[in-house]
Amino acid sequence: MDFLKNVLLISWFFLTLSEIQQLIVHRWVYVKSLENWLEIVPIISTFISCSGFVESVQLKIHASAIALFLGWSELLLMSGRLPQLSIQKEMLRTVSFTFLRYMMSYVTLLIGFALSFYILFKGSSKEGGAEMFADFPISILKTIVMFTGEFDVSDLSFDTFPYTSHVIFLLFVVLMAIVLLNLLKGLAVNDTEVIRKDAERLSLAAKAKLISRIVALVNALPKCMKLSVELKEEMFVIYPNRRNRIGSAAVRCLINIISKKREHNDKDKSTEIQKELRMFQEKLSELQTLQENLQKKLNLMLDD
User: Fold this and answer.
1) What are residue 80's phi and psi, to 5 degrees?
2) What is the model's pTM?
3) Distances, alpha carbon 264 to alpha carbons 232, 237, 268, in Å
């Protein structure tokens, strides 16, 4: 356990240094990003759960749960930066925002059903003896679970308040579980179809963002840490005093070099032709101006 704890603290240290470097490079852009805050919270939670500054075991368990959940969520977001997984990440983000945007309009209806169930089914309990609607927060959570289709009708006591409990429960099933849930499913299908149509654009945008992020981090490094990359032309060496083995890979390399040289020569020829055409065009423009001047002089002489 001590070894794993030390490894976790070392990883936490390097992750903290990485976040500090990103803060120095991006500054306000880093602060405004929600994803960066999702990286800061696991760092704080990990420090609380692994360091000896906090003695409360319950607080450490809470911090560990938060750190694990946000850590794996951050891994999902980081993998979504890759062009191959950018479409899946965009689907998740778009559908989630669509769900939250539309649920904000119907949250009052959800609270109304939760309050009604709290009053009508307060004494209902499961087989284990736990009350289903013990208080209002539990009623909200239970109503959200029922919204997904998990009703547990056999555990609800309709005999305490008959007719009223039947009608309200039936309204909940029709309005929330059938109408609203299917509406959200239809919106999700529509969003995914739109994202699939823009798959190429999203992939290119992910590539551009990834390249921009890498370039910004590389430019922020000191000069001693930057790699000096020198571009060289492709070469193929033939030794006159040795037996040269030219295989299929060497033949492909030679063909590639020859085609590149041919393209380069064609470009040079095209540039030379363009230069000649440009010179010819300049000569024509000079002749045109000379003709116009002569015409003006001739008109002046005729007017006199």
Assistant:
1) -70, -10
2) 0.57
3) 15, 20, 6
Nearest C-alpha neighbor of 113 from the set 154, 167, 152: 167
Query: How would DSSP label each residue in 6-33?
Result: HHHHHHHHHHHHHHHHHHHHHTHHHHH-
| CB proximity list for 5: less than 8 A, separation 6 or greater | 50
- What is the tens place of the pLDDT at every residue in 219-266? 766 666 555 544 445 555 666 666 656 555 555 555 565 566 555 555
Q: Which residues of 120-142 are buried (b: 16+ CB within 10 A; e: fewer)?
A: bbeebeeeeeeebbeeeeebbeb
Buried b (16+ CB within 10 A) or exposed e, 241-277: eeeeeeeeeeeeeeeeeeeeeeeeeeeeeeeeeeeee
Q: H-type helices in the chain, by residue range?
A: 2-26, 28-32, 34-50, 57-79, 86-120, 136-147, 164-172, 181-197, 199-220, 248-303
Structure tokens at 25: 């490079």
Which pair of structure tokens corresponds to residue 50?
A: 């692994």
Residue indicated by tokens 């055409």: 277
Q: How far apart are CA 99 and CA 40, in angstroms?
A: 26
Contacts of 124 (CB under 8 A, 6+ apart): 131, 132, 133, 155, 156, 157
DSSP H helices, 148-246, are 164-172, 181-197, 199-220
Give the whole-angstrom CA distance, residue 145 versus residue 150. Answer: 6
| pLDDT at residue 229 in the model | 46
Region 191-195: what's the mean pLDDT? 84
Tens of pLDDT, residues 22-44? 777 777 777 777 778 778 888 88
- For residues 59 and 147, give the distance between their C-alpha atoms in angstroms, rounded to a whole number: 32
Residue 161 has pLDDT above 70, yes or no: yes
